[in-house]
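Quick one: structure for this chain?
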Amino acid sequence: MIMCNKTEFKTIPLRYMCGILFINFRLLWDPTLKVIESHAHGLNVSYFWNVYGEELKKADCYIDNKKDFIVEKVDTSYSNLEHVFENWQLFKSKPDFVNYRLLLWKGLQLFPDIAEMKTRDVSELLLSFYEKEFMKHNPDMHSLATSNRMILKLLWKF
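Got it. Here's what it folds into:
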């Protein structure tokens, strides 16, 4: 961790560790979250949260939009290079963004001090999850959630 702070590429290992959470191999998840925890306590909070908060938001966006990955084409006269580039982009299995988001939320338990500092961002994501996921399955509570969200937005302005 000390070496990471001395370079311009402080966040690259953290981004890599977040990427490992996409791998569908449960034995990797807890040790990876421990390494992410060490980055949470070792990096400056703003550097850490810029990456981790962005990953939480991107996971929500991918879940909401159900984006499919588009295979880009490359114009070249070398057919082998074009073939390699297209095959490199193909996924054998689709990333599980719901599990990824769950693991990122689980990681927040390991560094509650940082989550507390970023309460505004975390509560916004939590309310968004509550509104989109929970309300989808409980339509009777939709009006209550809408009024609660309006009250919280008013409180945030003060």
